[in-house]
Automatic annotation (TrEMBL):
UniProt source species: Desulfurobacterium pacificum
High-level lineage: Bacteria, Pseudomonadati, Aquificota, Aquificia, Desulfurobacteriales
Listed SUPFAM superfamilies: PLP-dependent transferases
The protein's name in its UniProt record: Aspartate aminotransferase
The keyword Secreted is annotated on this UniProt entry: no
Domain of life: Bacteria
InterPro entries named among the record's database cross-references: Aminotrans_V_dom (IPR000192), Aminotrans_V_PyrdxlP_BS (IPR020578), PyrdxlP-dep_Trfase (IPR015424), PyrdxlP-dep_Trfase_major (IPR015421), PyrdxlP-dep_Trfase_small (IPR015422), SP_NH2Trfase/AEP_transaminase (IPR024169)
Pfam entry (one): Aminotran_5
């Protein structure tokens, strides 16, 4: 039997609500028109509310990595050094970006699945002169792990020349993150994760400390944040933005505000707890010691390749879950519960996981065990 529907349970791109798809399909607007300008300014304001920042928020036409690159190219000069938290694929990306732009990374290696030691960062920052920034993920998606960015912010806020730059690509819209209160100087996200919009837009926030550090001549041309900063408060962008995507993002942000950010965060917490309970009911273990609310990384049982679980889910049921990356390929699989996701999506993901595991010869459970455990969490968390 061929799968009838396609469902995305990957940590991005995620499923896009019908309302957002409808907004996406409206006739394309000219990016300098008064009509679009109004929508653009409204989107920026909604993003500032999402980020809980009084600082600047810029919308970039790129995937999330574009905003990471923009941060490195605009806030550092070649020869600067920065602490990089490398606890997974995306932490490594910070390191690669630093090297690409001549910034010296002081890498804090973290075992994949563990959170960084904040004490270690503190020690480096007190013993190494002239560190210009700390680059970290709020959620390291490759391992489904949270880093304690709030605690790092308590250290960097005392250092006038050191920026805290947080990749919140799978954290904003999953958690209610008070960017300013946590002293995050630069925060980044992307449209295709918890913001329930197709891929193609990145968002970067900058507080005063960060704005004051922006290079006049960054080591980038397209991602010139000073240029964007001149334009975007007027509802303009330096170059042609993806107008349909901005309109779609505006609709998605309206949905988040209608549900209420606090409720959105509670929903993600409930879904994450239900997913964790579900996989544990199958006798499986989580990879992360500090699991995130946007994605759950599950260790494949002995002798079972996680990529096969992913393949069976996709080919038999049209459900896309994610595998592991780099050295975790085959060792884990990841179930996402980020964005436009409800309990029924989770139950589906769990049941499909059961089916795939049984097919691959892992039999230490009965059909429905994970669903039962997830529903028990749902009942406890919501009724
Ligand atoms: C934490 C994190 N950082 C960076 C990225 C890269 O974003 P993009 O693929 O949008 O460039 C991702 C994508 O999954 C991510 O999860």
């Amino acid at each position: 039997m061929k799968p009838l529907k396609k469902r995305l349970l990957t940590p991005g791109p995620t499923m896009v609500p019908e309302r957002v798809l409808e907004a996406l399909s409206r006739p394309t607007l000219y990016h300098r028109s008064p009509e679009f300008k109004e929508i653009f300014l409204d989107t920026r304001e909604r993003l500032r509310r999402l980020f809980k920042t009084e600082g600047e928020v810029l919308i970039l036409t790129s995937s999330g990595t574009g905003a990471m690159e923009a941060a490195v190219a605009n806030l550092f000069k070649p020869g600067d050094s920065a602490v990089v938290v490398a606890g997974g694929k995306f932490g490594q990306r910070w390191e690669e970006l630093c090297r690409a732009f001549g910034v010296k990374p002081i890498t804090v290696e973290v075992e994949w699945g563990k959170s960084v030691s904040v004490e270690e960062i503190g020690k480096i920052l007190t013993t190494t002169p002239d560190v210009k920034g700390v680059l970290v993920q709020i959620c390291e998606t490759s391992t489904g792990t949270i880093h304690d960015v709030k605690a790092i912010g308590k250290i960097t806020k005392e250092l006038p020349d050191c920026l805290l730059i947080a990749d919140g690509i799978t954290a904003y819209g999953v958690y209610d993150i008070p960017t300013d209160d946590w002293h995050i100087d630069v925060a980044i996200t992307g449209s295709q994760k918890a913001l329930m919009t197709p891929p193609g837009l990145a968002v970067i926030s900058l507080n005063e400390k960060a704005v004051n550090r922006l290079n006049d001549n960054p080591t980038a041309y397209y991602f010139n944040l000073k240029k964007e900063l001149k334009q975007q408060p007027k509802g303009q962008t330096a170059y042609t933005t993806a107008t349909n995507l901005v309109i779609a993002l505006n609709e998605a942000l309206k949905m988040i505000e209608e549900e209420g950010l606090e409720n959105v965060a509670k929903r993600h917490e409930m879904l994450a707890k239900a997913t964790r309970a579900g996989v544990k009911a199958l006798g499986l273990e989580l990879l992360s010691e500090n699991p995130a609310n946007g994605v759950t990384a599950v260790i494949s049982p002995e002798g079972i390749n996680g990529q096969d679980v992913v393949k069976i889910a996709r080919e038999t049921f049209g459900i896309t879950i994610a595998g592991g990356q780099e050295h975790l390929k085959g060792k884990i699989f990841r179930l996402s519960h980020m964005g436009y996701v409800d309990i029924f999506d989770i139950l589906t993901g769990l049941e499909v996981t059961e089916f795939a595991l049984k097919k691959l010869g892992y039999n230490r459970f009965n059909f429905g065990d994970s669903v039962k455990a997830a529903m028990e969490v749902y009942e406890k968390e919501t009724l």
